[in-house]
Amino acid sequence: MTRPFPKTPEFSGSLYRPARFEGSVFDLEVEGRVPEDIHGTFFQVAPDPQFPPMRGNDIFFNGDGAVHAFRFANGAVDFQRRYVMTDRLKAQRAERESLFGLYRNGYTNDPRADGVHMGTANTNVVQHNGRLLALKEDSPPYALDPVTLETHGLFDFDGQLTSPTFTAHPKFDPETGAMLCFGYEAKGEATPDIVYYEIDSQGRKQREIWLRGPYAAMIHDFAVTRNYIIFPLMPLTPDLDRIRKGGNHFEWQPGLEQVFGVLPRDGDGTDVRWFTAPNGFQGHTLNAFDDGRGRIFVDMPVTDGNIFYFFPQSDGHVPPPETLSSRMMRWTFDMNNPGNALSMAPITDFACEFPKCDPRYSGHEYRHGFVIGMDMTRPFDAERLGAPPFQFFNLLSHVDVATRRVKSWFADAQTCFQEPVFVPRSANAPEGEGWVIALANRLVDQTTDLVILDAQHMDEGPVAVVHLPVRLRMSLHGSWVPAAA
Asked: d(Cα 114, Cα 117) in Å, to the nearest integer?
C-alpha cells in the first residue's frame, strides 16, 4: 500500500478505521461464564476496505467483505476471520490499490477494472444447503466453506438465478427450511423489475415470480408471512443517466411516497397490490405475519426522513440527524379493503435498528424482538470521542411487541453495539427463551468484545463478556447457525 487511508469519518476512529486483517484466535478470553447450551457459530460480515479509496473518500457500504466466525462449544469460543475473495478484491490485490470508484457505479472505475465483477459480498452472511453465502444486493452470492471460510466463488444456485441481483436479506421458512428471496433492479441497472424466488432446503428453485414496481427504488429488506410477500420501496431511486455521468447510484426523493408491494405467495405477479404511506425511510424487518383472513402485520423501524447522508437529494440537502424521528412501527395492510391505504402505529418510543426475532417464528405471529437502540440522553464521553459516529447505538433491547414493554441494557459512556443474534436455549424452548449475542465496540479503549445476555433479562447485563485481542471494524449483518446444521 503506497498511501494511508483518509482521515475522514468513514475511515477513522475506533468504529470505522479499517481493520484489514485475516486470522484466527483459539479459545478467547472470557469474563463470566459462556452458557454450555450455546453450541454453534455466529457468523458476521463487515465492509472492510483492503485499500484506500480510489477517489480519496468513499462510503461505508463500499468496503470489501470480511467474514467473522465465532464458534461456540462446551463453554468456549474460538474466532476466525477471512476476506471473501471476490473478483473485485483479487483484482485490487493484484494491483495493490483500489480500482473501483463510486458505490455501484462502474462508470467511475479505473479502466483496469473493466470486466471485473463488482460484487463486494459485504452485507450479510447466511448458511443454506451446506454452503455459507456472503451476500450483497447488487450481486449473486459468493459461496464459502462454512468451516474454513475459503471462498468457492460466485454462486447462482447452479444456474437457477435469472437476475443479476440478489437480496442481502433472504428469509427462511422455519417449517421447510426453504430460502425466500428476491432481486430488485432485476433486469439491469435502474430498472423497476423485481423477481421473487423460493428455493427449497436442497437448493432447488420452486417458484419464480416477476413484477414491476411503480418506480425503480432501493428495496433493501422485505417481509414474508405464511401467505404474502411484502416489498418495501424506499424513496431512494437510481437513475441510469445520472449513473452514466458519474453520479450516485441512489438519490433521495423527498416528495416521493413510500410504496409497499403485497404479493400473494401463491400468486403470479399480476395480483400484486401497491400500498402507499407518507415519505419516510424504512429500516430492516423485525418480523411479519398475517391472520389468515387478509390482514397483514409488518414490524420494522421507520424514520421520517433520509438517514443516508451519502445519498442526498438532488440539491445536496441532508437533514441534520437530530431533526429526524425514528421508532419501531407496525404496518397493517388489509387485503379485504379496496384502495391503497394502510395504517401504522408505534411499537417503541425510541430509535432502534438491526432487529432480530426468534427465527423459529419468522413469518408467524410472535411476541419477542431484539434490537440495538439509541438513547442520546444517556452519558456519552464526548470529551474524548467528540460527536457520536454514524450508527451509534448505545442500547441492547428486548421488545415485547404484544405489551410494548422494553428491557434495555446500557453499558457505559463509550460503548455502542452491532447487530444482535438470538440463540434459542434449546430447539423446543418457548419463543424468546435463550440468549442474545452481539459485538460491543469500546470506542475509547479501541477494543471489541462479544457480549452474551439472557434474552428475557437483558436489563441485567451480560452473563459473559468474550474479549477479542483485536479491534473489529463496524459490521453489518449476520446469523446464528446451530452446530446440528
From this structure: 9
**How many other β-carbons are positioned within 10 Å of the β-carbon of residue 111?**
6
CA distances from 443 to 437, 475, 480 (A): 19, 15, 26
* Closest to 105 measured CA to CA, from 58, 162, 67: 58
Kindly write down the DSSP assignment for every residue of 214-267, as one continuous string: SS-------EE-SSEEEEEEPSEEE-HHHHHTT--SEEE-TTPPEEEEEEETT-
Task: Write the Ramachandran bin of 168: left for phi over 0, alpha for psi from -120 to 50, otherwise beta.
Answer: alpha
CB-count exposure of residue 40 (10 Å: 0-12, 13-18, 19+): middle
CA dist 21 and 10 (Å) reads 18
Is the Cβ–Cβ distance between 183 and 196 less than 8 Å?
no
**DSSP per-residue letters across 140-182:** PPEEE-TTT--EEEE--TTTT--SS---S--EE-TTT--EEEE
- The grid coordinates listed for 340 are 391503497
pLDDT along the chain (485 residues), means of 10: 87 95 98 96 98 96 98 98 98 97 98 97 97 98 98 97 98 96 98 98 97 97 98 98 98 96 96 96 97 97 95 95 92 94 94 97 98 95 91 96 97 97 96 98 96 98 97 97 90
pTM of the predicted model over 0.85: yes
Single out the residue of 466, 430, 228 nearest to residue 333, CA to CA. Answer: 228
Specify which residues 398 forms β-bridges with.
370, 407
Q: Hey, is 198 helix, strand or coil?
A: strand
Exposed/middle/buried for 312, CB within 10 Å: 0-12, 13-18, 19+?
A: middle
Q: Cell digits for 275?
A: 400500498
Question: What residues are paired with 440 via a beta bridge?
Answer: 417, 449
Helix (H, G, I), strand (E, B) or coil at 288: strand
From 421, 371, 448, select the one nearest 43 (Cα to Cα).
421
Instruction: Measure the CA–CA gap between 356 and 187, rounded to whole angstroms.
Output: 31
For residues 337 and 61, give the distance between their C-alpha atoms in angstroms, rounded to a whole number.
Answer: 39
Cell of 482: 446451530
Q: Taking Cα atoms as reference points, which of 195, 189, 283, 157 lies closest to residue 232?
A: 283
CA distances from 462 to 76, 169, 222 (A): 16, 28, 31
Per the CB < 8 A criterion, the answer to whether 296 and 365 are in contact is: no
CA distance 441 to 438: 10
The helix (H) or strand (E) run that includes residue 89 is: helix 87-95
Contacts of 376 (CB under 8 A, 6+ apart): 388, 394
Block residue for cell numbers 447450551: 37
DSSP string, 419-437: --EEEESSTTSPTT-EEEE
Give the bridge partners for 180, in sequence order: 171, 198
